[in-house]
């Protein structure tokens, strides 16, 4: 028995969507992200002879319909909105590869498919030859994550898709991503996160000045302590006169 739930209303960010797929009353796929598509399309110029290229910015709408499929090594998430004028399909694959530590398993986003209808008037204005088009990814290997972990990336990522509309390039903008399509151990709860390289770098850039500041402060304190101890020791030493004429005053 499979259940699908759109929990986007629980997100404090109105641009962020939350989707859950459950099988046998247990969560098998969870996805949270904000998504927007930038889609080029043709319109007639004012002379009705030449073509101009416009751009549609299509956000993933809240309240979207969804489907999902969980498997041992393959999982899918399908999201449709505006009466199926737009459909996003995400395909996930889990596989293993050999490393110096032996066989290791990981999962990745292996394919993206986006279907859009240029006759839909919310985002497309006066498109030439309006009809449905499909944009797909080629040889995609994104969101690579060790098996048993969730993928997390707050930074915006751009993935290019090639459309059947004269091979135009459609851009998918993803941000605030948290996804786990396999091996969820607790219902509605992500496993330990695997941060994307951009987030790791930004976190390092944020903490590095603090670490360097602490090190610099520690060096200053140690220097002052050494100077104080050295000054105290030299002050307590008996000063032996170098002028031999002063020896007569000693004793």
Q: In percent, how helical is the residue content?
A: 10-25%
Number of strands: 14
Beta-strand proportion: over 45%
Q: What's the end-to-end separation, in Å?
A: 104 Å
Poorly predicted regions: 202-206
* Average pLDDT taken over every residue: 87
Order of helices and strands: EEEEEEEEEEEEEEH
CATH topology of the largest domain: Porin
Global shape: extended
Tally of discrete structural domains: 2
Radius of gyration of CA atoms, rounded to a whole number: 31 Å
CATH class of the largest domain: Mainly Beta
How many distinct helices?
1
InterPro entries: Lamp2-like_luminal, LAMP_CS, Lysosome-assoc_membr_glycop
GO biological process, one term: establishment of protein localization to organelle
Function: Plays a role in short-term synaptic plasticity in a subset of GABAergic neurons in the brain.
Keywords: Cell membrane, Cell projection, Cytoplasmic vesicle, Endosome, Glycoprotein, Membrane, Signal, Synapse, Transmembrane, Transmembrane helix
Structure overview:
There is one protein chain. The protein is an alpha+beta fold and 251 residues long. It has two domains: 2-195, Porin; 196-236. 16% of the residues lie in helices and 48% in strands. Strands 1, 2, 3, 4, 5, 6, 7, 8, 9, 10, 11, 12, 13 and 14 form a 14-stranded mixed beta sheet that branches. The longest helix is centred in the last third of the chain and has 40 residues, at 197-236. The chain is extended.
Task: Looking at this protein, list some descriptive labels.
single chain, 251 residues, alpha+beta, Porin, 14 strands, extended, membrane, cell projection, transmembrane helix, Lamp2-like_luminal, transmembrane
